[in-house]
Structure to design on (1211 residues):
């Protein structure tokens, strides 16, 4: 038997109970969530235990799984090559996330540049306008083709002129996220410098910025719902706005959570200059979330 | 194997020879002829490429068999050859793309029409509206499948135009450019008349346009089907077009305009219960029976029974309400948009007095109008 | 749990598999997982096939015979979904699991636990999907392409489960692809440069990229459906400024690359088999690699050829027509290379070779009809008729499916150490070959004559061809049950196979003993020229 620290050997775990339980947890969670949604739609009492049970299984098993991987790494089982596998894995996972957002951005482009003008009687398929005589194309759409089915918002989230950005929340959100990308980078440098105190400070700051972003974002959603009349129901503008910012917000939440775990690990002193993949993966993810936001800010708010 | 493949090529050739059940229809319009020629042109190109490629393969399989003593050569690349067989297909493709582009451009030439008709797909029937210059409907009617259920379920022998027959076809004049505006009410359908050489999707909330000119000597009936999956009875919504000589068409159209007047008058008439039942049975048979079934038993749980249903035996307001406005999110449509008050009155009256239902009210067109006014 | 480093330097104690059910539930071994994938794929193929037989039975004659139209639509939809996501895709992932580590000289897949997860998500996802067929509202009935609004506003409530099922399949494919990419890029034995990799590995590398690029887009599409159905958005509803056609654009941005996901690995398989039985190296290896990459690239810019009838502007129609036609060029390069490999070889015709040759011929016929469909004005006539059904079954059944069957005959002796019965294999081939053509060739004719797809009943002039097609389907279907018998017989009582198995075989997998040891290459093998790309 090779010794656990033999770095020429690619470590293959013999077997593991985690994955099959994860699959089961996901199944419970989604089947449960589907039932829940269908109950709500049918106006019946919601069956929600199943999705929570699934989520619970997922959380517990993931905890064990990641603990195990971290433990194995601490034992020195993970050699350079295995870590490269992790790097490839994380990199391409982020690529797949990019494509997920791409679908929503694609929807935004299509709606703005094709569907809305056509319905409004402009462009190559202007004839469609015959069906919607009262609709005029504009973006953001402030009056829907059918305002009884989809009540239009009173006001949009579009950015004011650049001189007024000081009082424009999404602008500050952009600043916050961009800053957090910098702070997480400083945390990384701190690992390289073996400066644990600095690492903890910078990472902590990053997490706080993430939480601040999320708080402001929730505030903005409440504002949209209560004061602007901008909701999921308010036509294609609201639909694209909320799906893009919503999924981004979901990713920030996840990212913050992952950073939090890295924070706990740095408290335990897990990272070394050459052995900090967990941290690096988390920070790539964070940068990715940041880049998505910049695109969002540009395409959803400013343009 | 060689023989089998040869068999295919032969079958393909038979198709090429143009036997009716084997090949695309030539159709009647200039466009459909152009499309047919294009189809045959690509087809023969593929056959020739196929003969060359498969020919080489079979030659090798026969002559370069180990069983025939063949010894393997060692070559495994040839830049010249590889360039050649990249370029040759490229040229062939250009030769296909050129005529294809021309036909397509011709098809997109929609202007200069003599008549505009809106084609609207519903689950599971077509509505045709003859529009004036401001896109207002002058004459409108539905076109429903006419094949009886008995034929579909094998209780009666199937007729010649099984599944391809409607109660009232779309009528168009020959020799005039007819522009079709195509859309749908509920889900996506697709309007296809093979003899006109196109199909175009009918998309709810979106308008598509296309056109056809039937040559003067080609008056006749042309049949097609809905070609986009649109739910349960997607297979049962044929398209039938009657291309009429111009004078016949004009006469028919004038008559239809007259009927519109009569129809408007019916809205203020009072009918006897017998008249309502007779008219109602007919409306029910065409518009409702496909879901609620002729015996009123429906197909629970998807399509509720009307026989004994709380709504069809309860307050009339609720009954009128669901028939006029439908129920969003279910297959029950807003029939207020499809039927006039006289038809609604008749079918509601019919439903309230058929099977085991027996309410003591009579529903007249004015009741419906009154309800709509509220 | 005993987690042990499996490989040691001077240690020949090989850690074998666990016993019983735990072996399959908890395994991290690429061969076990490959086996699971392959059996799962076969099970799904039988289920999807039975649904196809329901379709063919109903269409045997005009008139409604056995099923209601609503149920027929569920059959069509689930047949398509199960075959695509349950049979073909997992089939190829199974092959990749078995073969990629052996072909590149690796001990296992790069991320073994995640490998187990990718597989085990699938049975759950399909349980969710198939269970809807037994619910009151009925299963998905809107076609495997689930166009809105038939799949949103007008869908049965079970569509929610369908959506989550698709999310799960997407997650499985994404993890599977990441694993394959990491294995190929990171686990190759020293000397196994990219341009020495067997073509099967190359085609899978490119396929994995395709999957990573498009599965998330599919997830995005179903997510938007979920929001339209449950949260009041209007992505696919013109009344709120959306557009049902937008759904189709997003779907086909996934859907077209998806069909190449189902054919590129098949190209890989055939490129392994033909050289072996021609006893001659693959002709034009480099151009094969470039052609595969070109096909993958082009697959992203042709999607709207499925939507020629939705009424796109002229410029769009022309662009998508031209781009689609271009795919014939790299695909042609492949076909010509295969023929040239056979040319002046010393061919023998064992079962895998028969399936591979049938692949080349019948796939090419399917490609020709694809090219015809690409011609926009002509597609107005072909679209949504049985001509399209004929096209895609020619590329999928004697295409993708035959390549999987060929692969099983070709590598089964390596996997289980036993040889299949050659005459039974040949019988299976001829039954399948005849069955598949009798089933799908007549569909060209019914399509051209105007028979729409997805209908439970049809006009009388289509009767003859439908009857022939139905007979063919039953022949083909039962021949696959025969295949099951052959495989089981081989595993249980086949004659022992040699290590190299085939006289003309090259590649690292053939340097391992038959059956291949539980852990493939515990020491990185030396890559000689003879065992490099064949
Ligand atoms: C494995 C799957 C697979 C493959 C490989 C292909 C390959 C191709 N397909 Fe197909 N296709 C499907 C699966 C596949 N398809 C499916 C499932 C559908 C229907 C989806 C649905 O609606 O449900 C479909 C539908 C479909 C349509 C839409 C039809 C419609 O709905 O109206 C079109 C239109 O362009 C098309 C085109 C093509 C083309 C041009 C190729 C090309 O890649 C083919 C290229 C190959 C060749 C051309 C042969 C070899 C080449 C030579 C020998 C060189 C010389 C040749 C020439 C110069 C001609 N396909
Ligand atoms: C991906 C691969 C794939 C494969 C392999 C197949 C395989 C087959 N398919 Fe198809 N098919 C599709 C993909 C595929 N299909 C898709 C994507 C669609 C479009 C769906 C849509 O429109 O939405 C489609 C649609 C489709 C239609 C059109 C339906 C319609 O438009 O209404 C038809 C009709 O003939 C058909 C037939 C068949 C047949 C006869 C087979 C045969 O090859 C099947 C062989 C049969 C068996 C394998 C059964 C074996 C089992 C037994 C004999 C019983 C034993 C039982 C047990 C042991 C439990 N398929
Ligand atoms: Cu209407 Cu299909
Ligand atoms: Cu395609």
């Amino acid at each position: 038997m090779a010794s656990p620290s033999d770095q020429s050997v690619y470590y293959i775990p013999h077997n593991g109970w985690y994955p099959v339980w994860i699959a089961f947890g996901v199944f419970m969670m989604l089947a449960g969530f589907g039932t829940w949604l269908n109950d709500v739609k049918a106006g019946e009492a919601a069956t929600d235990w199943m999705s929570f049970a699934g989520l619970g299984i997922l959380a517990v098993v993931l905890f064990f799984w990641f603990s195990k991987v971290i433990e194995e790494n601490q034992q020195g089982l993970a050699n350079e090559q295995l870590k490269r596998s992790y790097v490839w894995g994380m990199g391409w996972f982020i690529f797949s996330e990019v494509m997920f957002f791409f679908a929503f951005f694609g929807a935004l482009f299509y709606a703005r540049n094709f569907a809305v003008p056509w319905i409004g009687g402009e462009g190559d398929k202007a004839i469609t306008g015959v069906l919607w005589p009262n609709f005029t194309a504009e973006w953001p759409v402030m009056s829907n083709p059918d305002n009884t089915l989809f009540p239009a918002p009173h006001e949009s989230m579009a950015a004011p002129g650049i001189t007024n950005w000081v009082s424009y929340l999404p602008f500050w959100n952009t600043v916050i996220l961009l800053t957090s990308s910098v702070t997480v980078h400083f945390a990384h440098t701190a690992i390289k410098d073996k400066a644990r105190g600095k690492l903890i400070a910078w990472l902590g700051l990053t997490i706080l910025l993430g939480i601040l972003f999320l708080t402001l974002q929730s505030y903005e959603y409440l504002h949209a719902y209560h004061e602007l009349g901008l909701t999921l129901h308010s036509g294609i503008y609201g639909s694209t706005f909320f799906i893009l910012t919503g999924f981004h917000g979901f990713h920030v939440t996840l990212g913050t959570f992952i950073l939090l775990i890295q924070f706990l690990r740095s408290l335990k002193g897990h990272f070394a200059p050459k052995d900090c993949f967990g941290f690096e993966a988390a920070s790539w993810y964070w940068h990715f979330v940041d880049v998505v936001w910049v695109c969002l800010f540009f395409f959803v708010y400013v343009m | 194997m060689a023989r089998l493949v040869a068999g295919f090529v032969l079958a393909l050739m038979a198709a090429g020879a143009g036997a009716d059940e084997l090949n695309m229809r030539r159709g009647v319009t200039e466009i459909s002829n152009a499309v047919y020629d294009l189809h045959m042109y690509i087809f023969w190109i593929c056959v020739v490429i196929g003969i060359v490629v498969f020919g080489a393969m079979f030659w090798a399989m026969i002559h370069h068999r180990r069983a025939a003593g063949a010894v393997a050569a060692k070559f495994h690349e040839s830049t010249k050859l590889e360039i050649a067989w990249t370029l040759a297909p490229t040229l062939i493709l250009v030769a296909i793309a050129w005529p294809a582009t021309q036909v397509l451009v011709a098809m997109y030439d929609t202007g200069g029409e003599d008549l505009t008709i809106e084609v609207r797909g519903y689950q599971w029937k077509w509505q045709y509206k003859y529009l004036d210059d401001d896109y207002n409907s002058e004459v409108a009617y539905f076109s429903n499948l006419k094949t009886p259920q008995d034929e579909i379920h094998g209780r009666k022998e199937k007729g010649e135009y099984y599944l391809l027959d409607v109660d009232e076809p779309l009528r168009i004049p020959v020799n005039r450019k007819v522009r079709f505006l195509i859309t749908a009410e509920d889900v996506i359908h697709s309007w296809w008349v093979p003899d006109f050489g196109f199909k175009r999707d009918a998309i709810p909330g979106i308008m598509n346009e296309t056109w056809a000119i039937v040559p003067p000597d080609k008056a006749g009936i042309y049949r097609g089907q809905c070609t986009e999956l649109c739910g349960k009875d997607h297979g049962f919504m044929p398209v039938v077009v009657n291309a009429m000589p111009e004078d016949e068409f004009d006469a028919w159209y004038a008559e239809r305009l007259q009927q519109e007047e009569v129809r408007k008058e019916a809205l203020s008439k009072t009918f006897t219960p017998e008249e309502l039942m007779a008219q109602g049975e007919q409306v029910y048979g065409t518009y409702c029976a496909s879901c609620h079934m002729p015996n009123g038993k429906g197909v629970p749980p998807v399509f509720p029974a009307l026989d004994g249903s709380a709504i069809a035996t309860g307050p009339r307001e609720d009954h009128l309400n669901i028939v006029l406005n439908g129920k969003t999110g279910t297959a029950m449509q807003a029939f207020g948009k499809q039927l006039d008050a006289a038809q609604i009155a008749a079918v509601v009256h019919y439903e309230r007095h058929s099977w085991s239902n027996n309410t003591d009210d009579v529903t007249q067109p004015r009741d419906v109008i009154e309800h709509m006014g509220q | 749990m005993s987690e042990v480093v499996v490989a040691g330097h001077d240690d020949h104690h090989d850690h074998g598999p666990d016993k019983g059910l735990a072996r399959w539930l908890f395994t991290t071994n690429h061969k076990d997982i490959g086996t699971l994938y392959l059996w799962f794929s076969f099970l799904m193929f039988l289920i999807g096939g039975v649904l196809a037989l329901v379709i063919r039975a109903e269409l045997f004659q005009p008139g409604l015979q056995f099923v209601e139209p609503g149920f027929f639509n569920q059959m069509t939809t689930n047949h398509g979904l199960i075959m695509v996501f349950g049979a073909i895709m997992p089939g190829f992932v199974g092959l990749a699991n078995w073969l990629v580590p052996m072909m590149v000289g690796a001990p296992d897949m790069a991320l073994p636990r995640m490998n187990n997860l990718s597989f085990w998500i699938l049975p759950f996802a399909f349980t969710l999907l198939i269970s809807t067929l037994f619910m009151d509202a009925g299963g998905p009935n809107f076609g495997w392409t689930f166009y809105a609004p038939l799949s949103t506003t007008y869908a049965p409530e079970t569509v929610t489960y369908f959506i989550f099922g698709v999310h799960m399949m997407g997650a499985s494919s994404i993890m599977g692809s990441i694993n394959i990419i990491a294995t190929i890029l990171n686990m190759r034995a020293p000397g196994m440069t990219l341009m020495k990799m067997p073509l099967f590995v190359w085609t899978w590398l490119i396929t994995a990229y395709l999957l990573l690029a498009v599965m998330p887009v599919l997830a995005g599409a179903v997510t938007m459906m979920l929001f339209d159905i449950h949260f009041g958005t209007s992505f696919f509803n013109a009344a709120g400024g959306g557009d049902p056609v937008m759904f189709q654009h997003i779907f086909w941005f996934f859907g077209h690359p998806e069909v190449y996901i189902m054919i590129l690995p098949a190209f890989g398989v055939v490129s392994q088999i033909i050289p072996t039985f021609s006893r001659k190296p693959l002709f034009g290896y480099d151009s094969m690699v470039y052609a595969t990459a070109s096909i993958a690239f082009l697959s992203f810019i042709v999607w709207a050829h499925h939507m020629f009838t939705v009424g796109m502007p002229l410029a769009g129609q022309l662009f998508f027509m031209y781009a689609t036609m271009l795919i014939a060029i790299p695909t042609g390069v492949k076909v010509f290379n295969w023929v040239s490999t056979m040319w002046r070889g010393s061919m023998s015709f064992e079962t895998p070779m028969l399936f591979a040759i049938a692949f080349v011929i019948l796939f090419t016929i399917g490609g020709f009809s694809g090219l015809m469909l690409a011609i926009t004005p002509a597609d107005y006539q072909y679209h949504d008729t049985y001509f399209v059904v004929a096209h895609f079954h020619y590329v999928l059944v004697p295409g993708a499916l035959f390549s999987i069957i060929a692969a099983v005959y070709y590598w089964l002796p390596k996997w289980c150490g036993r040889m299949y019965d050659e005459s039974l294999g040949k019988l299976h081939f001829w039954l399948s070959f005849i069955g598949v053509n009798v089933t799908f060739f007549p569909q060209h004719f019914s399509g051209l004559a105007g028979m729409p797809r997805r209908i439970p009943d049809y006009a009388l002039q289509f009767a003859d061809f439908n009857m022939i097609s139905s007979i063919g389907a039953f022949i083909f279907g039962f021949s696959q049950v025969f295949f099951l018998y052959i495989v089981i017989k081989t595993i249980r009582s086949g004659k022992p196979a040699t290590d190299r198995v085939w006289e003309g075989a090259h590649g690292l997998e053939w340097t391992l003993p038959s059956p291949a040891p539980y852990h493939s290459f515990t020491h990185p093998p030396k890559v000689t020229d003879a065992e490099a790309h064949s």
Notes: Residues 24-67+78-107 of chain B form a domain with the Helix Hairpins fold (CATH 1.10.287). The first strand of chain B starts at residue 115 and ends at 122. Residues 34 and 96 of chain B are 13 Å apart (CA to CA).
